[in-house]
Design brief:
By secondary structure, the chain is α/β, with parallel strands linked by helices. The chain folds into 3 domains: 5-97, Signal recognition particle alu RNA binding heterodimer, srp9/1 (2-Layer Sandwich); 119-228, no CATH class; 249-388, no CATH class. The chain is built from 18 helices and 8 strands. A 5-stranded mixed sheet has the order 1-3-4-5-2. Strand 7 and strand 8 form a beta hairpin.
Length: 398
């Protein structure tokens, strides 16, 4: 068969044709008739797709096939060469393990070393791009999909993350996304994926993962939530979350509020809140206990509104005696006044309140500032004097 000349033709017309079913039989006919040339043509033929239609018939699809042919006494012998454009190529491909011409020529054009390398490249999703395949291989991204599947089996990635992995589909897509987002190695990419920083259909820059890692965040959810709340460290973010706060500025104010509570020895945040409200009153102002009770309840409602209403305002940004209609306070806002009687007891007995002014149990009025403190001192002195007089009278009577 050496020395055969090949001619490309469009089609054969008006010639009786014998279509052989085996290329080896075709070669035997060539050996018998000894043609000095073969014709090569590409035609579209209807072939079975392997699927059935609604009534059970084989579905047909159009497929381009390559035919080799020669003529003998106006009779044409032809065979489907399975994509090979010459018998020599078919032999060479067979020796190298290629069954179809499409793969053989694609591998040849892509300069693949052998069929194994070609098959691995296609399986990884790189098609016939050997250059990108070798780049991915050198950075351990060939096999990335399988390795992440193994991470799922080992329980290192969640079901949701596995769904993201399925969206990638192959190593090539993983390599593409990793490159686009500037990951320097497969190891870094895998760690970022396991931590939730990688999405198949969205940019997830390696910079976010590295920043999170540097600051000590273990996963994307906590990191992005912390960033949204302007937290710099996971410790501060977790401490804020523990009391139901997700904003750094609000948490710092809460800490200041809590510090006041601890420094003054108050049992609850409600007592602390009352102390702060009383301290905000102007000097010499007077407030009845009923109004003070309203202030306490209004402030609690204010905090409830901040905790339940997503309007962009926090409790700390609202007037301290502003009314809102909500029913659930944040967990950090502890209370102690069950009724106005307990409030009166607190106003009478608490030394910190006494430093702000004076609560008169008879008139049920609190006087803020120096005048109130003076009144309290005078009341104490009068009480002491009365106690002294009573003692002297008792002694005289004896």
């Amino acid at each position: 068969m050496s020395g055969l000349t090949y001619y490309k033709v469009d089609q054969f017309q008006n010639f009786p044709t014998i279509r052989l079913g085996d290329i080896e039989v075709f070669e035997q006919m060539i050996a018998k008739h000894k043609p000095d040339h073969l014709f090569v043509s590409k035609v579209s033929e209807s072939v079975s797709s392997g699927e059935k239609d609604l009534i059970g018939r084989d579905k047909a699809v159009a497929k381009e096939v390559t035919l080799l042919a020669f003529t003998v006494n106006n009779l044409i012998y032809t065979v489907n060469s399975n994509g090979f454009e010459s018998l020599e190529d078919a032999k060479d491909a067979s020796n190298k393990g290629y069954a179809a011409g499409d793969d053989f020529y694609a591998a040849k054009e892509g300069n693949f070393v052998d069929k194994e390398e070609y098959d691995l490249c296609k399986a990884a999703g790189f098609g016939t791009n050997r250059v990108e395949y070798l780049k991915a291989k050198s950075s351990d991204f060939v096999g990335a999909y399988r390795k992440l599947e193994q991470a799922y089996i080992e329980g290192r990635i969640s079901d949701d993350q596995y769904k993201e992995l399925k969206k990638f589909g192959n190593d090539a897509r993983i390599y593409e996304v990793a490159g686009k987002n500037e990951f320097e190695s497969y190891e870094e990419f895998e760690n970022a994926f396991v931590s939730g920083f990688v999405k198949a259909d969205a940019d997830a820059g390696a910079g976010n993962y590295r920043a999170a890692l540097e600051k000590g965040f273990a996963d994307s959810k906590s990191y992005y939530s912390a960033v949204a709340g302007d937290f710099d460290t996971p410790d501060a973010f977790e401490a804020a979350n523990a009391v139901g706060i997700n904003n750094r500025e609000e948490f710092e104010r809460y800490q200041s509020f809590n510090t006041t509570k601890e420094n003054h020895g108050f049992r609850t945040m409600e007592q602390t809140n009352l102390f702060l409200m009383l301290s905000e009153l102007s000097d010499d102002s007077q407030v009845g206990v009923d109004r003070i009770w309203e202030m306490v309840k209004d402030a609690e409602t204010n905090i409830q509104a901040s905790n339940n209403e997503d309007d962009g305002k926090s409790f700390w940004d609202r007037p301290i005696i502003q009314l809102f209609n909500r029913s659930k306070s944040p967990s950090w806002y502890t209370t102690s006044f069950k009724d106005i009687v307990e409030l009166k007891v607190f106003l009478i007995s608490n030394d910190q309140v006494a430093d702000l002014g004076y609560y008169d149990a008879d008139t049920e009025v609190f006087t803020r500032g120096a005048e109130g403190v003076t009144v309290a001192a005078e009341a104490t002195a009068d009480a002491d004097a009365d106690a002294g007089t009573d003692t002297e009278e008792a002694a005289t009577a004896e």
